[in-house]
Amino acid sequence: MRIRNLVAACKQRDDLCVVSRQVPREAIPGLIQEEEQGRNRAVLFESVEGYNVPVTANLYGTLERYGLGLGTDAAGIWSKIDAAIARPAKVVQTSKAPCFEVIHDDPDITKILPLVQYSVLDAAPYITSGVVFMKNPDTGRRNISFIRLMVKGPQKLGFNPKSLHNKGYYSDIALAGKRMEVAITLGPPSEMLAAGAAYIPDGVDELEVATALAEPEQRNELAVVKCATVDIEIPAGSEVVIEGVVSTDLEPEGPFGDWTGCYARPQNKPTLRIQRASHRRDPIYQTILPGTSKEQILLTIVRFYPELEEIRKRYPGIRDYTVPDYSLGRLVIAAVSRGAPVDKIMGDFLKIQCINRVMVVNDDVDIHNPADVLWAFSNRVLEKEKVLAYGCEDEWWNNVKLGIDTTVDIRDIRHTRPRIIKMPA
Question: Exposed, middle or buried by CB within 10 Å (0-12, 13-18, 19+), for 423?
Fold first, then answer.
């Protein structure tokens, strides 16, 4: 679904907070957070001081809206993504491109878009919703991903290929002395955004997965068009497109209020030189509140969901699991039945790149109730061997990983939870 259609659908469902008064860019982060912590609707800023471009945010801040964008409900998201990965669909080509209605051959993106600085100590405004399209010039392999982009000037961005996947592209192309072309889409169709957020196995074309996420009769909405200055195809229905080339010249990037709940420290990262920008005649600028926002965490968890589900299927003793919002996507709590191989379950969950804490509890514990989980942690970790530490060699996740086993033999009266007698008065 194209995002302007998603915005309209949210409005029809009374799930859109419309800010009609003119607001300065500096007010946008706080107003998004205020709505998220309240009714948690999508947000549309109709008038931003100094710009003719409205801003939308928190579009994917609930599973219901995420599912709406993919043409399903919250419960159907995962099966739809799994089916699209298993059965990719042919990408539709087009020559009609709403995203090229207005072209800037010598762009100044600071004047085109109401770019926002989100946190007090951020080094600069950031583009947080950039869905980046890349292609290996040797293999033709295409990639879609989220990459945070620091605004360094009218035609220059800091480019942080943070994930292992994106580092691989940067290493194979730019560091190998080849021209690394990219196209950044802002406000692409929901299916393209979902493909960029999801973990898709090597060898599977991510644009074909995105196409398969749409029903056959709706796939023209995801049709792609070739960019003008880079050899990359992008969804023609995107709101804004930025074409550029990545340089191996490193410059400081950060600090930035990251999804871990802390600032990412400044590091030398590649830069991107913008060659062209284009957009619809009436573009909507989509942004994502970074840091610990519900939308940011949901999009993070979505990426690792297939791995989580694979582990659930591997071990029938897992009765249920959750990755709670308050853990910022880094903690798995799993309830297991008696006899489940707890050490193996913890070890497999901790192999997932994002996860650095796993707690396994008996199935008499309500994993969706933090007080109940903390009760198990406080009362059932009875030996030091119940806490397992795993080293982490990935520099992105440079910290210790912990597995905490709170399981006990609940048949033993000492571990049986008392139930209060309840009788009619």
Answer: exposed
Expressed in percent and rounded to 5, the helix, strand and coil fractions of the chain are 30, 30, 40
What's the CA angle centered on 261, arms 193 and 265, to 5 degrees? 95
DSSP-based three-state secondary structure for 190: helix
Give span(s): CATH 3.40.1670.10, the chain: 315-415
- Grouping H, G, I as helix, E, B as strand and the rest as coil, residue 245 is strand
List, for residues 243-284, the tens digit of each pLDDT value.
Answer: 999 999 999 999 999 877 889 899 999 999 999 999 999 999
The CATH fold assigned to 76-289 is Pnp Oxidase; Chain A (2.30.110)
DSSP assignments along 267-297, one per residue: EEEEEEEEEEEEE-SS--EEE---TT-HHHH
Place of tokens 């947000």: 43
User: Where, residue-wise, is CATH 2.30.110.10 in the chain?
Assistant: 76-289
315-415: what fold? UbiD C-terminal domain-like (3.40.1670)
- In single-letter form, the type of residue at position 331 comes to L
Of 76-80, 211-215, 377-381, minimum mean pLDDT range:
76-80
Placement of tokens 């992105």 in the chain: 396
Residue carrying structure tokens 């030189």:
273
CA–chain centroid gap for 15, Å, is 21
Which backbone phi and psi does 306 adopt, to 5 degrees? -60, -35
3-state SS string over 49-84?
CCCCCCEEECCCCCHHHHHHHCCCCHHHHHHHHHHH
The two structure tokens encoding residue 112: 């085109």
Q: Which of 197-211, 275-289, 334-348 has the lowest mean pLDDT?
A: 197-211
Answer yes or no: pTM beyond 0.70.
yes
- Which tokens go with 297? 């965490």
